[in-house]
Design brief:
36% strand, 34% helix, alpha/beta, 5 strands, 4 helices, 137 residues, globular, five-stranded mixed beta sheet, single chain, Trna Endonuclease, Chain: A, domain 1
Length: 137
Amino acid sequence: MAKYRHMLPRDIDTWNKFIQSGRMAFDEIWYDVHVGKPMDVPAGSPEYLFKIAQGVSRKRIDAIARFGYIYYIIEVKPHANMEAIGQLVTYRRLFQSEYSQYQPLRALIVCDTLDFDIMITAREQGIEIMAMTGVVQ
């Protein structure tokens, strides 16, 4: 469980199901990748507060994976909905600005089920979806 520190138990179940499915055999996976600006700490604060803000207030990508020469930003959800799309759009922009050397870059939602209504938007945003069970209408 320490490998997926910030994932909730249902997220872990979904991720394990995906990994065990063998649908994509990634060459490398990094978990809990921090991106974005940390919260502001008042000027004159001790150095340890700046370090804490860096560690806990930045956004966290569930996983970054490499498959061949392609990198994937991965959001894991038991049920994918609009929230997952919004997270990936934001994560992709932040990751590209901080780690521009990792290209080409794709966005992927790994889920057990997904909301039918997000499929077109995901395609328009260049987000792939891998649902382990299927679509809920």
